[in-house]
Amino acid sequence: RCYTMVKNKEPRGVKKMHLELRKVQIQNIAFGEENAIRDHVLYLNKDSLTEEVMKDKRIKKVDFDIARPGESVRIIPVKDVIEPRAKLEGDIFPGIFKETMEEGGYGVTYALKGCAVTTTGPIVGFQEGLIDMSGPAAEYTPFSKLNHLVMVIEKQPEFDAHEHEQMVRMAGIRLAAFVGQLAVGQEEYESEEYTWDSIGEKYAQYPDLPKVVYVYNCMSQGLLHDTYFYGRDSKQMVPTMITPLEVMDGALVSGNCVSPGSKTTTWHHLNNAVIEECMKKHGKEINFMGIVLNPLMVSLKEKYRDCMLTIRMVEMLGADGVIISQEGFGNPTTDLMLVCQGLEKRGIKTVIITNEDAGVDGMSESLPDSVTEADAIVSTGNSNATIMLPKMDKTIGVLSDVAKTTGGNVDSIQDDGRLLIEIHGIMGGHNLQGNTYLGAITI
Q1: SS3 sequence, 47-60?
Q2: 413: which DSSP letter?
Q3: Closest Cα partner for 252 from 268, 236, 274, 275?
Q4: Are 338 and 303 in contact (CB under 8 A)?
Q5: How far, in Å, CA of 56 to CA of 46, rounded?
């Protein structure tokens, strides 16, 4: 038999990744008879919120509260912060709610800016933190500038800590998607459009600009230290090439109780400062080639494997330079340093973002691991620095849980009601994707 290969007369069309992000500004939240957005105010009906959350039968009780910028309000312990979002067509947070899923990064996505769904309740682990809406702690976190719909969840008694974490995380994501639907159809919004080309096309673009890749380290250590990619636990993954548009569309979801100051909440994933800056500079100062998502594992063998694969993918993307962000502290610094060392040895200039744990006096060793190749470091400050916080008029959650949070202890609550805590304990206080007001300089 003879077979003849016939070339197609017309090349198959390639669907470019294109995302329109429609930002609807929210200036206040109030409870009311209906769910609606009017004059930049988000009105929410408590009964409908409760009905949505109580679909999970593992939840015994749920209540809702509101915290606004400038109020004398403290939220503790905070588990996750999620920006409400919705798709014009399809599902936001793909892979979370259904067995089937659509690829993120396409179509029209609505985002409610200026507000968040924030989850709290009895503490699960020991690493949740606080958000103060006013006072000195408010100056350390972008979360004090948001209007918060706070969800206080109590679980049924028969479920353990891991199921508790999972149900709280899912409840927050579900409620953020539910509230986000109110944005669909809003006529007043700010629109930003993004297009993402194939690697081959991107490689040929802007030949005079340095090609930059972002290595996105994500917590994947289990024991309440998890991240979810399209609904899959990242500790079951190897390093993966992803696009920034997928991240903007909710492909990454937080599911961890890592140190609150350096924790990547779901809000941080959706508003990743490194991605936003790389997108702004693309075609002007750099050629942004893409992202390698690197799971931060526990064992040394897994770290070596993932670092090896991350370095290989960065080389495949043709990078001249790399930015690496961290999540958490302690042994995740080893992953950070191994990738940095491997890239530098291959001639790829690398900048790392990390915090420092230099003790309350700033005199201790700042990092638990280091390599000589890590000579370009962006520091988000000393997380052990202490701060005295005033007593708040209102606490949403359980104030005594500060004794079990990172940065707090049994002596944190003072006799006069003030609170002594390390920067570690402020949610987003030294975020390692750069979305923070805290930093450091060399003197």
Answers
A1: HHHHHHHCCCCCEE
A2: B
A3: 268
A4: yes
A5: 17
DSSP annotation of 275 reads H
Nearest to 408 by CA among 423, 394, 429, 392: 423
Q: Over range 284-301, report the average pLDDT.
A: 95
Do residues 328 and 219 touch, judged by C-beta distance below 8 A?
yes
Strand partners, 331: none
| 8 A C-beta contact, residue 196 and residue 272 | no
Q: What is the mean pLDDT of residues 299-323?
A: 96
Nearest to 441 by CA among 352, 384, 379: 379
**301 Cβ neighbours under 8 A, 6+ residues apart:** none
Residue 24's pLDDT band, with cuts at 50, 70 and 90, is: very high
Task: Report H helices in 213-254.
Answer: 244-248
> For 351-360, how does the pLDDT look when each residue is reduced to its tens digit (9 = 90+)?
999 988 888 8
Q: What gap in Å lies between CA 183 and CA 86, rounded to an integer?
A: 7
Residue range 413-438, pLDDT digits in tens:
999 999 999 998 999 998 999 888 88
| Residues 131, 126: Cα–Cα separation, whole Å | 16
Task: Establish whether the linkage from the previous residue to 77 is cis, with ω within 30° of 0.
Answer: yes
Angstrom distance (rounded) from CA 208 to CA 210: 7
Tokens read off for 373: 């190749």
- By the 8 A CB rule, do 420 and 440 touch? no
Q: Which residues pair with 37 in a beta bridge?
A: 42
Do 287 and 202 meet the contact criterion of CB atoms below 8 Å apart?
yes
For 186: left if phi > 0, alpha if psi spans -120 to 50, otherwise beta; the answer is beta
The pLDDT of 203-216, averaged and rounded, is: 95
- The dihedral through the CA atoms of 33, 36, 41, 42 has a sign that is positive
- 115 catalytic? Reply is no
Report which residue type is found at 381: G
H or E stretch including 266? Answer: helix 266-270
Annotated active-site residue in 257, 278, 307, 340: 257
Q: What distance in Å separates the CA atoms of residue 143 and residue 149, rounded to the nearest whole number?
A: 12
In order of 73, 74, 156, 273, the CA distances from 135 in angstroms are 10, 10, 35, 25
Percent of the chain with pLDDT over 90: 68
d(Cα 39, Cα 291) in Å, to the nearest integer?
38
Site of tokens 């930003």: 192
How far apart CA 329 and CA 84 sit, in angstroms, is 28
Query: What pLDDT shows up at residue 15?
Result: 64
Sheet strand arrangement including 17-25: 85-87, 107-113, 17-25, 190-196
